[in-house]
Amino acid sequence: MSETTTLGETTTGDLTDAPVPTGERADLLAMLAKQRHFLRFTTRDLTDEQAGLRTTAGELCLGGLIKHVTAVERMWAAFILDGPSVMGDFTAMTEADWARRADEFRLLPGETLAGVLADYAEAARRTDELVATLPDLDATQPLPKAPWHEPGARWSARRVLMHIMTETAQHAGHADIIRESLDGAKSMG
Fold first, then answer.
1. How far apart are CA 163 and CA 168, in angstroms?
2. Which of 58, 109, 121, 168 counts the most CB atoms within 10 A of its CB?
3. Of 37, 56, 4, 47, which Cα lies nearest the Cα of 182?
4. Where are any strands of DSSP class E within the chain?
């Protein structure tokens, strides 16, 4: 059974309903799938407790990284469709807002590795479908107000997808270090 959700004016459902991507879209999806694989691979054979452990001087844990990348991917996919309103004004965030954002990097009580991986798979499925069905990868949206964005800048859907890929790859590297520190397991080598 296919669940259907409307995001902006684009309707997403089961990937089997979407056209098979070719050319640039197929390349973007293949690279994104590769980065997602490496991120998920760092969590193989772990318990929930292990997925929540900090193994470096940083605040990051494997389960939290999966949660963060899931939230980022969902947010940027929604941005492609609905623009900066889905992100809010980062310059107006309160201490409580930043604390909630910090929880995105932790595996909280009651959360499981299986649960965050399932959420990630669903976010990935929706993004993949968006890439396959988006009418124009050149369509742009103004970036939200944030200290790290140039005022008045706009990003195309293509650039957003490359940003999702970059974010995923960066955090896959973090995850590899965390996993090696946890039990010596490596993604490669």
1. 8
2. 168
3. 56
4. 5-7, 10-12, 140-142, 154-156
**What's the CA gap between 55 and 63, in Å, rounded?**
12
Among residues 115, 160, 112, the alpha carbon closest in space to that of 134 is found at: 160
pTM of the entire predicted model:
0.86
Per-residue pLDDT of 14-43, as tens digits, reads: 445 667 888 999 999 999 999 999 999 999
Token pair 């070719």 is found at 22
Rounded to whole angstroms, the Cα distance separating 73 from 46 reads 23
Per-residue tokens: 26? 């197929």
Query: pLDDT tens digit string along 140-177?
Result: 999 998 888 898 999 999 999 999 999 999 999 999 99
* 32 sits in which H/E element: helix 23-41
Helix count (H) and strand count (E) of the chain? Answer: 6, 4
Indicate left, alpha or beta for 134 from its phi (over 0: left) and psi (-120 to 50: alpha).
Answer: beta
Dihedral, 19, 25, 31, 35 alpha carbons, nearest 10: -60
